[in-house]
Amino acid sequence: MTTTVTLTGTGVPHPSPGRAGPGTLVRCGDSALQFDAGRGTVLRLAEAGCALHELRAVFLTHVHSDHVLDLADVVMTRWLQGTLHASGPLPIVAVDGLATTFAARMLDAYVDDIEVRVAHVQPAPPQLDVRPFALPTEPTVVWRDDQITVDAVAVHHEPVREAVAYRVTTPDGVVVVSGDTRVCDEVADFARGADVLVHEACRASALHDLVRGTAFEHIFEYHADTVALGALAARAEVGHLVLTHLIPPPTTAEAEAEFAADLRRGGYSGPLTVGRDLTSVELHAPRGAP
Ligand SMILES: [Zn+2]
Ligand SMILES: [Zn+2]
Which partner from 44, 194, 211, 245 sits 20 to 30 angstroms from 117, CA to CA? Predict the structure, then answer.
């Protein structure tokens, strides 16, 4: 069996060519799980060969607009395509609070459009299937199907509240998706020995002097400094570190290499990928495993 991890977006709120908003797709057998749905997610899923009706669930890490901008598009487009592919409502798994409130309201702006479509083509309005879980201060199972178990744990993205990371366990291994967080022990513990860690990355140390006195100085405080992240990945003995949500978005190979250099400076010597949209990593079950 093979589990495939695909970055559906590696960008941030400020647009950068070729980088959609944040999102990670994990596929194992006929299970396809999407983590966050930033700008352009529907297009990137199509490019990754994942039809919307194939998604079993979408998981939200937190409610910063860049992570949820395309969630309504995912839900609406899957609903529209329901005339071609029976799929049913898409489970939206999220912390009970800001994220579930966002999900519950997000189609309100489309109420007139929905009414017209129902009058003409669609058999019924879209159904929202929000699956709330309490903010988990300890790793907690939030999803399980026949192939995959997903745990969540609260991370540190304050002043944004209710941010979580997810850990996906498949027959092929373990994938951790950090969401947005400063480097923290919770992720280090959560990702210990993981085969793949998809982590946000911010060159805070390297750009410290450049951003002093600007809004970015404050913003960088709640993102993951690349040098400290290198130390975390080494300590947690991560199998493969995949960087996403790149701040600042690199536009050249040299700029990507600077992210990698920061990680090495922090002490991580293992496999490392500075993510681009549609970067994919495969996990294979150990030889002899069922
Ligand atoms: Zn954020
Ligand atoms: Zn973000």
Answer: 44
